[in-house]
Task: inverse folding
């Protein structure tokens, strides 16, 4: 009886240790603690700030801040933004990190950032310029004029 209790206790402890080891440490790409890089082929805006097409890195502004505050920076060092974000979730995860943009006509706005292999990402609130662009498109559709549709554009990101 005592031997069975000891064997069962050891199995339970091993199961707890295995669970902690599996779920307690996130994979490298699942947060924005590690900067992602992306080649963005069009001009865009985020947080009310405009950026030219080019190479950008996206990651935590401060390691200790979590993913709440992100740093978006051109690799040439000329452009930088540090906008606040809100969490978003999805049911599936994708192998690669991605940046999600909303396109209204010729205007692109960075909307979301998704780390690789993650079910949670970060979303930027809509700027005044994006709300105005969205309103213009809605009004054009409302009066029956031909207009470009609102699109979602995804740019793949990678870990350096």
Result:
């Amino acid at each position: 009886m005592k031997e069975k209790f000891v064997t069962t206790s050891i199995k339970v402890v091993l199961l707890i240790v295995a669970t902690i080891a599996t779920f307690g440490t996130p994979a490298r790409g699942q947060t924005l603690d590690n900067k992602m890089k992306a080649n963005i082929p069009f001009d865009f805006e985020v947080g009310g700030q405009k950026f030219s097409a080019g190479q950008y890195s996206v990651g935590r502004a401060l390691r200790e801040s979590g993913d709440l505050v992100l740093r978006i920076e051109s690799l040439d060092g000329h452009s930088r933004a540090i906008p606040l974000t809100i969490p978003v979730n999805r049911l599936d995860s994708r192998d690669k990190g991605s940046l999600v943009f909303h396109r209204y006509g010729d205007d692109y706005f960075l909307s979301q950032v998704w780390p690789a292999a993650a079910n949670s990402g970060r979303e930027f609130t809509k700027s005044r310029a994006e709300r105005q662009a969205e309103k213009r498109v809605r009004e054009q559709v409302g009066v029956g004029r031909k207009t470009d549709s609102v699109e979602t554009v995804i740019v793949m990101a990678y870990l350096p």
Observations:
- The longest helix spans residues 2-23.
- The longest strand covers residues 97-104.
